[in-house]
Amino acid sequence: MNKFVTEQEVTERGVYNEVVSLLAHMADQNKNKIALRIASIAKTKLASVVRVLLEKLQQDEQNKIDIYYILENVLEQDTGGLERRLLYKIISLASEQMRETRQVTNELKVAASNTLVMLARCYFNDVMSELRCHLNLPEEFILVTLGNLSSAYALKCIRFVRMTLYDMDCMLELVNDSRMRQAFCGVLEKWSRAVNFYFTNWEKCSFHRMDASQFCDPILPIYAHVTSNWLTCEEPELKQAIIKALGPMMSLLLHKEGHQDQLFKPISWLLEQYKENTDVFHITKFISSSEQGLPYVVSGQYQDNCHWLKINTKEA
Predict the structure, then answer these.
(1) Is 300 helix (H, G, I), strand (E, B) or coil?
(2) What is the widest separation between alpha-carbon atoms in the chain?
């Protein structure tokens, strides 16, 4: 047996013992301070710290949410040199946790989702690839994470918009319950916002400019399905999710002519929502077409307790 211990092994053991000791005192000390201390260790010993946290995520059933929080803090720094094996392990573990259906709280799924979003800062393509692998079936937190990715990294999403929308279109018929539809609408809202942001900031992307039809064509059938099949819902939370999605989707689709008849199909439904609850539904604040040089503007006015939408046309 080799009695000699390498310097790297000594370092690994030291990091392991220190991180484990800090994790053991999470219940007694300020979690933020512990997270900052472990993140500080990771600045020079990233792989060693990540290995410990991954091990504890698989072993510690009581503190997984806190460990994910600490891992998220570690990943907030420059992790461009993270070993691929560790990268794939984080992605796989967090993805599996989000899709777990037994004895897993939503808080834990949120923690796993937030970790993936943070990891995507340096490894966007890898995280996006994992999420798209699971778009054959509707999974709430896969959809939630997709939406959060586009909010955090709008321009990075652009190359994936077309294929992601086609994936979502393929699973539309399986999105049956209210909670899943809310998550689905969340993706539609946030990815549509990302595309609208791209239209005014395309020069910041390193790839060639993409035509509006590349986004409008795949989202139109989804818009048609939502407006044809989901507007009869009664749940207030779903109604609000639909409204929040319709605005950015309309704004996106207005970049391509020929969709106006279909675009304004849900206007009468939107008017009904104003009558029901003016405090909850802010229908008309979402389109800013005049700033985007579009030929159509949708605006809303509130006057003498009458709530109505006014559709104008004007020169681009």
Answers:
(1) strand
(2) 89
Predicted confidence (pLDDT) per residue in 86-121, tens digit: 999 999 999 999 998 887 899 999 999 999 999 999
Give pLDDT tens digits for 77-95.
Answer: 877 789 999 999 999 999 9
Positive or negative: CA dihedral 155, 156, 162, 165: negative
| pTM of the shown model | 0.83
Contact predicate 253/263, CB 8 Å: yes
Q: Per DSSP, what are the bridge partners of residue 310? A: 299
Instruction: With H, G, I as helix, E, B as strand and everything else as coil, classify residue 36.
Output: helix
Q: Are 145 and 131 in contact (CB under 8 A)?
A: yes
CA dihedral of residues 216, 312, 154, 241 (deg, nearest 10) = -90
Q: Which DSSP category does 285 fall into?
A: G
- φ/ψ of residue 309, rounded to 5: -105, 140
